[in-house]
Design goal:
77 residues; mainly alpha; 0% strand; elongated
Amino acid sequence: GLAGAAFLEFAHAFLPDLQNFAKSLLPNAHLLHAAMERWLLIFGILFILIVFFFPKGIIGSIQDYMARRKNGTVSST
């Protein structure tokens, strides 16, 4: 909730500066420039994928994995 909103505001404030820096550093990287212009779409897709693959959240999934590993129930495949 709050951390996601803070990250979104941070990205909204500093991504234009990062985009201008990347354009000056890599003037011929058209794919990179197109992706940076659609950062909110990419952020949304990433958010959906994280929610889909980590329904307990990233930290909750890591904690579950560590608990299973400690108990010896993690499979290697």
